[in-house]
Amino acid sequence: MESTLAAPSQSQSSESPIVKAVGVERVYGEGQAEVRALDGVDVTF
């Protein structure tokens, strides 16, 4: 998983993401009771 949080500098355009998360995973439980709430989610704001 990769996470980035940064305010754009003056040299960056307004198109640059402020938040980017790549490959986010969240698993609850284990074995047969395992539930994958997030499975490799990519998000950019």
Mean pLDDT across residues: 84
**How do the SSEs run, as a string of H and E?**
EEE
Largest sheet: 3 strands, antiparallel
End-to-end gap: 16 Å
- Helix % is under 10%
Low-pLDDT segments: none
SSE topology:
Layout: E1 2-5, E2 19-28, E3 35-44
Antiparallel strand pairs: 1-2, 2-3
Structure report:
The chain is mainly beta and 45 residues long. It has a domain at 19-45. It has no helices and three strands. A three-stranded antiparallel β-sheet has the order 1-2-3, with no helix packed on it. Strand 2 and strand 3 (35-44) form a beta hairpin. It is rod-shaped and about 50 Å long.
What would the keywords be for this entry?
45 residues; mainly beta; 3 strands
Write a brief structural summary:
With about 45 residues, this protein is an all-beta fold. It has no helices and 3 strands.
